[in-house]
Amino acid sequence: MAPMMDWTDRHCRVFHRVLAPHARLYTEMVHANAVVLGDRARLIGFDPVERPLALQLGGSDPVLLGEATRIAVDAGYDEVNLNVGCPSDRVQSGRFGACLMREPALVAECVGAMRAAIAGRGVPVTVKCRLGVDEQEDYVALLHFIDTVASAGCDTFVVHARKAWLQGLSPKENREIPPLRYEDVYRLKRERPQLTVVINGGIASVEAAEAHLAHVDGVMLGRAAYHDPYLLHLLDRALFAPAVEPLPREALLRALRPYVEARLAQGLALKHIARHLLGLFHAQPGGRAFRQVLSEGAHRDGADWSLLERAISTTQAQGRRAA
Length: 323
Prior knowledge:
Elements: H1 10-19, E1 25-31, H2 32-37, H3 40-44, E2 53-58, H4 62-75, E3 79-84, H5 89-93, H6 104-117, E4 125-129, H7 139-150, E5 156-160, H8 171-174, H9 182-191, E6 196-200, H10 206-212, E7 218-220, H11 223-227, H12 230-240, H13 249-255, H14 257-265, H15 271-274, H16 287-297, H17 305-322
């Protein structure tokens, strides 16, 4: 499941773990400087149920990235991923994200420092990148980037199968306008079979994910699975337990109840968890009613698990009428 700023927080990840027991989950991107100097419990804290879990770091200072990687592994993360794909202006101004695809030697230096900081710990350092940026159109530039970074010991690349425009397009537009070039990612795996290659970008169905897996080692889903989270459950079943029937949506939601009630008992407002649940009944009879009940009630003082039960009941009642 892809790292997504302001979306894949710890509450989202616990929900996704319920849906997909076998998925590898990623945190939102956190800058290395924040990990080293900031409130670590708030920034990189997680529930053990989320594992296997990767921390995605941003940055371009090898020393800071090395220290942040050590902190992450000490905290129990199963992977540390360097972001070389985010195209936002804020990221570029800090010299990290997609603009680093123009500096493969620096990325290799960063990866080397990160790996050295956790030598012998058995935790991989991976890279998430684009096909290129701006004028980088050809496959040769991508291969040069990959080979340079791989020479520092990175053997796993998550490739968003679009290039990024650093000027003129918003982050949202960069997820939609540059054309998807899946064949370039397939070619990378064919020509560098020793690398683990994971494909990302525009994957929105179980069938599409399975088709990609004929060419690469893994698939990373992002916004499609966030807005329709049941897709994660269907994909987990299809890949890891095809003989087992998927669980009903309401059963999956109720499996989250112990976590929700524990967080509420600690003083967390329900709205911080409920916002990640809105798409669970996406495109289902009663799905709109489910979203409405949660949207109208979760922000109110004292909102608790009973609101979620009411949302389920309302959804089921509307579904019966539709049938």
